[in-house]
Model the fold of this input.
Amino acid sequence: MIGKICIKLLGREAGWTCIIVDQVNDNFVLIDGNVKRRKCNLQHLEQTDKILDIKKGASTQEVLEAMKKAKLKVLTRKEKKEVKEKLEKIEKKDKEEK
Done:
């Protein structure tokens, strides 16, 4: 079941593609991909026949890379404003030191 491509049926992310990363128990799994990484009820997912080659508990980055290799659409995530500003400050500081 790990790596199985699913589509969320309920919630704000309904219709979005996700990947099963871990099985919590008989009813719940951990999903990631084009959705926020979270525990989800299996009844809220439509499972497809396709399976990605990922390990149990794979990181979000590993899941997104596997989705790109499988030529699945990967939604871009917005960076938080604070993180973007910090990166710009660090880059500016590095340029000044050179």
In short: The longest helix spans residues 81-97. The beta strands are 4-8, 17-23, 28-33, 38-41, 45-51. The two ends are 51 Å apart (CA to CA). The mean pLDDT is 88.
